[in-house]
Design brief:
The structure holds 2 protein chains of 2 kinds.
Chain A (H helix, E strand, L loop, with lengths): L6 H14 L4 E6 L4 H12 L8 E6 L3 H11 L4 E5 L1 E3 L4 E3 L2 H9 L3 E5 L11 E5 L6 H14 L4 E8 L11 H26 L4 H5 L2 E8 L4 H9 L4 E5 L6 H5 L4 H6 L4 E5 L1
Parallel strand pairs in A: 1-2, 3-6, 7-8, 7-10, 8-9, 10-11
Antiparallel strand pairs in A: 4-5, 6-11
Helix pairs in contact in A: 3-4
Chain B lengths: L2 H32 L5 H17 L6 E3 L4 H13 L3 H24 L11 H23 L9 H18 L2 H19 L13 H19 L32 H26 L10 H17 L6 E3 H9 L6 H16 L1 H4 L4 H15 L2 H10 L1 H16 L2 H20 L3 H6 L5 E5 L6 E5 L1 E3 L4 H8 L7 E5 L3 E4 L1 H16 L3 E5 L2 H5 L6 H5 L2 H4 L8 H13 L2 E6 L15 E11 L5 E10 L6 E11 L6 E5 L14 E2 L6 H6 L1 E4 L2 H7 L2 H9 L4 E5 L2 E5 L7 H19 L1
Parallel strand pairs in B: 4-6, 5-7, 6-8
Antiparallel strand pairs in B: 1-2, 3-4, 9-10, 10-11, 11-12, 12-17, 13-15, 13-16, 14-15, 16-17
Helix pairs in contact in B: 1-2, 1-8, 1-11, 1-12, 1-14, 2-10, 2-12, 3-4, 3-9, 4-9, 4-10, 5-6, 5-14, 5-16, 5-17, 7-8, 7-14, 9-11, 15-16, 16-17
Classes of the chains: A alpha/beta, B alpha+beta.
Amino acid sequence: MAFSPNIQANVFEALRMSKMFNASLVMVHVGEKTNKKEAALDKIISNFDGAIPDYRVLWKAGNPAEVLLGACSGENADLLILGAIKREGLLKYYLGSVARKLTRKAPCDVLLLIKPSVDRVACSSGVVNGLAHPKTEEAIDRAFYVLSSLGAQKLTIVEEIPEDSVAIKVDDDRSLRKSTIAKERIKLRENSRVQGLLSHIPKSIKENLEVVVQPIFGRRGYSIGHYARVARADLLVMNAPSKLTLWDRLFPHDLEYILSDLPTDVLIVR
Amino acid sequence: MSKSSISSGLRSNVFAGFVVSLIAMPLALGLAIASGFPPIAGIIASVVGGVMVAVLGGSYVTITGPGNGLVVVLLGAVTVLGEGDMQAGYLYALAAVILSGVLLLLFGFLRFGSLSDFFPATAIQGMLSAIGITILLKQLYVMFGDLETKGAALELLLGVPALIQTLFTDGSTGQWYAAGIGVVSLLIMVFYSKIRSRFFHLVPAPMWVVLLALGFDAYFSFVGVGNPISKSLLILLPENLLGGVPTPNFSKLNQPVFWGVVVSITLISSIESLLSIKAVDKLDPQKRRSNTNKDMKALGLATIVSGFLGGMNVVTVIARSSVNVNNQASNRSANFFHAAFLFVMVLVFQDQLRRIPLTSLAAILVYTGYKLAAPAIFVRMYQIGKEQLLVFLTTLISTLLTDLITGILIGLLTTFVVHVLLNKAFWLFSRNLLKPNVLMYKENETQNYYVGIIHFCTFLNFYKLKSKLDKIPQDERAVVDFSLCSFVDHTVQESLQNYEELFERKGGALEIIGLDIHAADSGHPFAVRTLRPIKKLRVFGGGRTKRQLQLEALAHEKGWSYSEATKSQKRMLRDHPVYQTTSVERVYNLIEGPKKRLSLCDIHYSEGAFIAKENIQTTLLRVQLDKEIPVFSFDRELLLEKLSHLAGIHDIDFPKYPEFSRDFYVQGNDPKKIRAFFDDKMVSFFSAYGFYHIMSNGKELLVRQFLRPATPAEAAAMIEFGLALKEKIDG
């Protein structure tokens, strides 16, 4: 939390979030504690509509990324909420270097907000990845939990299928027909895999959400972000990547596509 | 296939091959001479190409042989590599031809089928026109019997008056006759299509030119004077056509200038072949898709063989192919027969061929060159946009002043600079060039293929979009959405139009949405810089997109009114509780029915403000009712959930219709009235159209399908739905 023009929106989003999950909130400010700052914060919080959940403020000076990472593990946090910055005039959201570092290193789930708002904007639909990956099941579980807690109505599970999983190269009508058939087959297989994952979700949670499965043949990590934008989703839930190195920054893939150009709010499940 | 259809198919292919060979013969001879190769080299390329590509190729009704685009580079190769000695130059050039064949073969294996897509369409056009002008000017001299004058295009152009003057002052009788035949031949080529005579059209124009020359010769032999045209102005064929294969000279392999020639030849021949294949696919009555990579391999191999036999490059040629299609060719055997007839004709009539003056072949080439640089092309470029004319002229002039490779690279650079200047934003390109920008998936709801593009889409990254489009079966429906894309260039629009035609031919449809707003959005604070230039780049007539023209046609079909941009509609949605918090940016493409009771429009609105602002473009149908009905919203996915935040509005159950109740959300503040409104008839009607989102404010209904603009077909369906709905309610 920094004293930027966005502070009220950021604080309000965090308060609302902790209320919805029945969680306690720790706000971290990196910098000296002054009376002026404290008063300003109190004033903002007093403007919050409705019951104020249990919260604490941590004041600590130092390197922002390290302070926040320390706070996450020190407080045993379940979720780290970060605000993204909007590139002036370009209608694009991206992560600052601190947030990027946190995204990579945080020991808990990370929620990236692209447009924190003072008034509540309802979250109506979400998108979650359905990759064949050991972490996917957890990501889908989490998506169901979070979206139903937020009162959303729709969850789309996007299976990104790499283009090269269809070995047939399209050259003419015949190879096109073959590749279309092969794609349909892969789709069926992927759908049944996702249905298997869904069968573990408790019925009480599933009932409130309309669940749609959308297979997409395309670049992993990129397609889901673009889809979330086109579908105007409010939240995108992704697996945390196994690890990100400098190499991944230079040759972006998977999550990097989303981090460099956030389509919606993003929840990264660890 | 039954036996009779095979034999009738065979007959039509033999016939088509024969007609094509009549055109191919003079063209092959002329192109070879113009390239500085011996005349027979063109025949070799035609015969080898016809046989090999017919056997190995991946296209269906194309004809292969020596191409007109290559004339300039090959002539350049012979002069530069031979350093003045044409015969030595020819042997060096053969080595370059062979190596370019190897490169083409490699392109085929590496699946570079789309090489021509990496260049801006306008720059390619400029380069081809420059080639045309060069051919025209060089052959103009030959046509007037002057084989000596050489020089750059500009010198040649300035020398034309002197050329004609010299003919009048110093011309010998033989030269006069030769020039006369040349001019008459040119007149035949120009006026052939304008003469409406079935007899005249039995023989193709280039063959008339040959017949004219032979008739001339026959007349003089008959009267016993002998042909007055000097031997040097007649075609020179070797004494024994089947013997004496030249040996290509590979000794310049270590010189950069040699490799420059190889690259130019390869570039031009692959561009010419790919453009021709693309064009011929649109002519094929059986609507087959050519396998361009397979064709490239076959062309490469044929070029290698042709080179070793002393022939020119083998490329796919558009003019001969279209004659082939017009004569009912149905498969590759026509290409084979064209080669076979050519071979036999040259062997049998070699004596006659030696009597054809070079001037008449030059006349055919002057006409070919003119076709490549016709004034109509300049006019079309200007119509597309001033900046296209700029790119076109820059490429054309720089190609004439330097060489083909430099010319097209300058054209490419100019195009890019123009794009940056139009957008006033280099970052748009630099930041997004390497990122993926295309999403394609099959929509669950409609089974349409949805293709979305973000950032920008120009010749620089069109291959990404193209590779997705190529994977869509063309008998399906595809929707290409540019609403999130800031900039689309002319090359992309032109290629997409090509795709539209292909889809339409196969019974599918490819529709482009989200471009309309680019043109109209000049008042938008964010959009101005990136989106406005599109207006200038329009290819589809009158400044309107194709979708707008289709919507207009839809309105006129119904006898309704259509207006492209409308004003003062900002309050249009205010009467609806759901849209009370939205701000309408603009309403456009408005179609209105009689008395404005039914209307359809595209709408661009935003929700929220400042950083939480979200822009939405969609198509809305508005139905004004005569009867009073309850206030409600009907929806399957609860996308209109915002209503629930308003006081006193809740989800309504229909105990009588459990399935309807389960599948749809109906919300409103007066359950009693709403349950009364949804009787048997209404329930079954609404269930059938469950994919629409419908809102009623008591006096009017708003209907929406997607959170994107509707395609013209979807818009038509919405209007039909609106009419049916009004009928159901008002009775």
